[in-house]
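> call design_seq(struct)
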């Protein structure tokens, strides 16, 4: 059976691309695209951390132990470093924050390119290719940016309202005892965080709609919300287990790095570097897996709606 769906070629800058069938939209079929996104995120991390690393090198460059004193138990050297180099640390943190914010916006292009590589192929059933996918990512950038701004604002509103309601409930329930009041406040905040995560899922589904159907922001939001409404729990869980799985290696490697921190020798450095990059690659792969799921979900939701329309019309007659 062909992997290419019987639909017209992709409109826009890459007309030679055709849509894959829903079952063929799998992240594991596009390892080079996943590696490209990993390289992008690794470059961002290097750029963001370079000022802080340069500051440590400038302060401890003459120490025969290198930066090992910063890892000694008690943290006295680390506290001294933070107090005496606060201006340099502030500049490094400002630079890192700027890089991460710009990277989050610019990262919409490689994300859309990754989704294009998952959802489309050339007419001869070959991979879409780097240039074509990046071209599509650039073409979708404005729509993705609108979705990012809207979804971020809604998530901030949901969390803010939850925090406010939690504070109100905490004061109202204070007569039941402080522990019970704090539990109630925490429950309200947890519900608001759950709501914010649902907004995030709808956001990713809207992104998938932009790539899959080449629609603008408002239409994409409508398709994303409708897709989530058709199967909320399965889609939320598909996102949630991948999000939880992406946190596990971070915690594990952080524990290993804490034990090896300050260790001298190239072997320890290379080992930590490999561990760190393995975590980044695993997180990118899990993210790509979820985006492929989102593409399949919006495609399947539209088919379900279209199939239901004739049945609804027949019922009404």
């Amino acid at each position: 059976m062909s992997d290419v769906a019987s639909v017209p070629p992709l409109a826009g800058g890459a007309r030679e691309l055709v849509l894959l069938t829903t079952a063929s939209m799998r992240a594991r079929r596009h390892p080079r695209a996943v590696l490209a996104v990993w390289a992008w995120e690794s470059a961002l991390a290097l750029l963001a951390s370079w000022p802080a690393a340069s500051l440590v090198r400038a302060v401890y460059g003459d120490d025969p132990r290198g930066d090992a004193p910063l890892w000694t138990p008690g943290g006295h050297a680390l506290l001294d470093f933070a107090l005496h180099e606060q201006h340099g640390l502030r500049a490094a943190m400002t630079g890192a924050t700027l890089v991460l914010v710009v990277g989050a916006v610019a990262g919409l292009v490689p994300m859309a390119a990754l989704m294009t590589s998952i959802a489309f192929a050339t007419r001869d059933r070959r991979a879409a290719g780097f240039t074509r996918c990046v071209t599509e990512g650039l073409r979708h950038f404005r729509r993705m940016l609108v979705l990012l701004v809207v979804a971020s604002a809604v998530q901030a509103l949901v969390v803010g309202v939850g925090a406010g309601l939690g504070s109100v409930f905490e004061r109202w329930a204070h007569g039941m005892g402080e522990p019970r009041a704090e539990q109630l406040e925490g429950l309200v905040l947890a519900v608001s965080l759950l709501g914010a995560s649902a907004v995030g899922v709808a956001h990713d589904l809207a992104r998938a709609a932009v790539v899959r159907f080449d629609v603008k922001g408002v239409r994409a939001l409508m398709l994303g919300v409708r897709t989530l409404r058709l199967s909320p729990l399965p889609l939320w869980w598909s996102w949630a287990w991948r999000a939880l799985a992406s946190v596990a290696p971070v915690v594990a490697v952080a524990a290993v790095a804490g034990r090896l921190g300050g260790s001298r020798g190239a072997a320890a450095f290379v080992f930590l570097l490999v561990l760190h990059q393995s975590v980044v690659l695993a997180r990118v792969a899990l993210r790509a897996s979820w985006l492929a799921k989102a593409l399949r979900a919006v495609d399947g939701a539209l088919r379900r709606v279209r199939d239901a329309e004739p049945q609804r019309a027949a019922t009404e007659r």
